[in-house]
């Protein structure tokens, strides 16, 4: 069997750069309505379930992809500047340009865009993703070391597997679960593996984070709740200080102290980001239920795996497909710090470039497997380490200097979680939109509607 890992093998991106162009007023309104508003409405930082339901019912991501493809046919595949009063905003329409934006950072393309700063400062004002260029390197290096990027088995791998087994096997033995039963169990596991066993039942902490994330959805439009934010960071700091063995807090405590890192802000980002991993896990089960041959191969992999710290490449690929097909980061943004040249055209400094994940991952005009479950996309043969322009069209964990440093830990943890949920059983989907082999997979999938039975 082909070894699988987490680098997509893709068609080479078209090599010839294309100039930027400008959308008219009508087209700007159409794109704002079909591609941007549905993303914002769903909640960039904390999903709003009624809007997630609506997106699924109306397949809003499909409409967004169609609108973006239509604009690309009209203008070519260079960046498309929208007519937004007082702002310079460009939609990215090619893998080539996405590759350039992600690779060339943090200058001239900064990940700390003003939209991200406005949103994330509500709960992690000194988080790495929104750090200014002079503060970013130390925080980035710290995150890479703590989360052990590019290390398939994190130092806490055995403990993570144990926590996943303890917190999630109850769902399997109950024989049936939905989002409302999965999510609380997932958060118990997340609190334990991030902060230690003492945090297992500290729902007040994640509720507080949830309230601040809900404010963050409104970015500039909501006032910062300074006292609540300080309280969140204080409580996280206390868990980090306790450094319970087997948790990420223990890994953090072992790192050299650097006051400029502001550890609690970084850990606030981690807690927030585990939500996406839970959603990806819950959706992965729909892929397993709808693809029996793959599920059978996964069952063999789980049977054979090491009991203490299992390496599960097929499950990693399943989760990667979950976040490719239904990206949890709806858009990846970059802001230019200077004027930039696009095949002879100039795009002004201060432009926010929007890479819509739905188009990047599901571009059926360019990708054969856009709408199929295709775990083989993550096969490692000849994958040149995530830097080739040919890989840029599928970036669920971003790429380049701001790519997700939690990626390997996430893929390990979600893989282990799926192995616990499915071990020795066949999974059947009993509610929510079906994801069935041989049919074009839906572009919007309401994870809150999915429910499963095991037999
Ligand atoms: C399914 C789960 C996850 C997905 C799909 C994901 C995806 C991403 C993406 C796309 C970015 C980059 C955003 C950008 O380029 O603007 C990012 C950044 C980041 N992620 Fe994740 N992430 C996940 C879970 C996690 C977890 C669980 C952690 C920590 C435990 C984490 C830690 C981070 C950090 C610290 C950054 C900022 C990196 C920087 O600014 O250099 N992520 N993630």
TrEMBL record:
Molecular-function GO terms, alphabetical: heme binding; iron ion binding; monooxygenase activity; oxidoreductase activity, acting on paired donors, with incorporation or reduction of molecular oxygen
SUPFAM superfamilies: Cytochrome P450
Protein's UniProt keywords contain Chaperone: no
Gene3D superfamilies: Cytochrome P450
Alphabetical list of Pfam families matching this protein: p450
Source superkingdom: Bacteria
Keyword line: Heme, Iron, Metal-binding, Monooxygenase, Oxidoreductase
Cofactor section: heme
Residue sites binding heme per the record: 404
Positions of region (Disordered): 1-22
Keyword Iron: yes
Protein family per UniProt: Belongs to the cytochrome P450 family.
Protein name from the UniProt record: Cytochrome P450
Gene source species: Klenkia taihuensis
